[in-house]
Amino acid sequence: MINISPSIASSNLLDIKNEIKKVEDFNSYTLHIDIEDGNFVPNITFGIKLINMIREQTKINISYHLMVTNPLFWIYELPLRDNDIVFAHVESYQYPKYIVNSIKNRGANAGIVFNPATSIEQYKYLVSVCENIMIMTSEPDKDGEYFIDDMTDKILIAQKLQFKNIWVDGGIDKNRIETLNKIGVSNFIVGRYFFNNDFK
């Protein structure tokens, strides 16, 4: 199985209604929203007002990626619906299990995210409480971001630790999807490659 979640931050934001329709017409797994605060990562993307407008515009499930220094604020402000997914970085909070439980208390599915430099093994204790894990396969918010080949090893470690629902994000194109799907990855965040190409 291959689940594609287009990242709306990579779309033409001046034409966001039609870009959302493109995501819906593709029968995407989720609409992916990267929330970046200019602190945890250099870029700034969406505020709550625009996120609420996006949520009202579509019935598709949304996966939120909190690339922020204060994930708890966003967890309690997001317009969550059943089957939405909220991903928070383990690097952003000292007690990630508390973050996972906070997401679940809002009725959403929980996910944790690992930057390329972060080891997974010390977070094995989250396997039983977290439905999703996202591995960043490139550095965030850099021009011409490329897939880091060493992240394949991290994917295999996550599988060995029995993490479920492994997602990958960063430098993902069709060839990379085919390669990673062969080793068991099903969930792919696709940004520029989806919106800048005739993705089929």
TrEMBL record:
Its EC number is 5.1.3.-. GO terms for molecular function: isomerase activity. The keyword Isomerase applies. PROSITE patterns: RIBUL_P_3_EPIMER_1. It comes from Brachyspira catarrhinii. The keyword Lipid metabolism does not apply. This is Epimerase. InterPro entries: Aldolase_TIM, Ribul_P_3_epim-like, RibuloseP-bd_barrel. It holds the Pfam family Ribul_P_3_epim. Keywords: Isomerase, Metal-binding. It is an enzyme of class 5 (isomerase).
